[in-house]
Amino acid sequence: MMFLRKTAAPAQLTSQQAERIRRIRRSGAYILLAIATVVFLLPFLWMVTTSLKSDEANLAFPPQWLPDSFHWENYERGWFGSLPFNTFLLNTVLITALSMLGNLVSCVLPAYAFARMRARAAGLMFAALLATMMIPREITLVPKFILFSKLGWVDTYLPLVVPEFFGVALYIFLLRQFFTTIPQELIDAARIDGASELRILWRIMLPLSKPAIAAICLFSFVGNWNQYLESVIYIRTTEKFTLPLGLAMFTDQYATQYNQMMAVALVSMLPIVILFFVAQKTFIRGVTLTGIAGR
After folding, report:
1. Whether residue 159 has a cis bond before it, omega within 30° of 0
2. Domains in the chain, start-ordered, CATH in brackets?
3. pTM of the model
C-alpha cells in the first residue's frame, strides 16, 4: 500500500476561466462568420461598384474596385436604352405571379392528403413522389419541348406557367412536413363538427401554416423570377422576353458596357432582396420547421 499513490484529480476550471473560454470560442465564431460574410458579399459589392463606373474605367487594367466618380446615369442608360426593360419587367411579374399561384394550388392539396389522410400504399406513393426529385430537370427538356411544340405553345407563356399547376415535389414535401406538426386534435374536432376535408384545409391548416406557405412562395418567386433555361427555349418574340432574357440580349449587343449591364442586374434583383427581408423571419421559421418535423 505504501507504493500506491493517489492520482491527482484534474483541476476544475473556475467560473472565470470557463467564461473566458466561452468568450474566446464566441469571438472565433464571430470572426469566421465575418470572413464568410465578406467573401459572399464580394460579388455583390463588385456589381455595385461596376455599375457606377465610367465606360473607360470598366476596361482599366488592373481592375479598379472603387470608381473615380459615381456615374448614376448608367442605371437610366441601361434600363431606358434600346431594350424595353419595362416590358420585360411586366412579363416577368406576370409569369412569376401565375407560377406562384399554380404552385400553391397544386401543392397544398396533395401535401394535406399525404399528411392527414390515410390511404392504401400512401407511403409508396410518397416515396415515388420523392424519387422524382432525383430526376435532373434537363432530362425532361426534350420530351417537354416536343409535347409543347405539338400543342402549339411555343412562343407563348403556357410552357412556363401550365406545368406549375401540376405540383412540385419539393414544395409538396415541405408542406407535408409542416402539416404533420399541426395537432391532430384540431382536425378531429373539426370532423366531429361536420367540417369537410376542404373546409379543414382552408379554415385550420392554411392559417396555421403561414411560415411554410411563405417559404414556398419565396422559393417559387426566386425560381420563376430568375428562370432562364426554359424561357430561352420557348420564348422567341422580343416583346415577350423576361428580365433574364433581356439581360442576356443586353450582353450580346453591348458586350463592353458592363456598367450598364450591372446596373440593370441590380435593379432586377431588388424585388428578391426586398421580399426576403420583408418575410425573413417567417421564411426561416417555415424552413426550420419543415426540416425538423414530420414522421
Report:
1. no
2. 22-75 (no CATH), 82-292 (1.10.3720.10)
3. 0.81
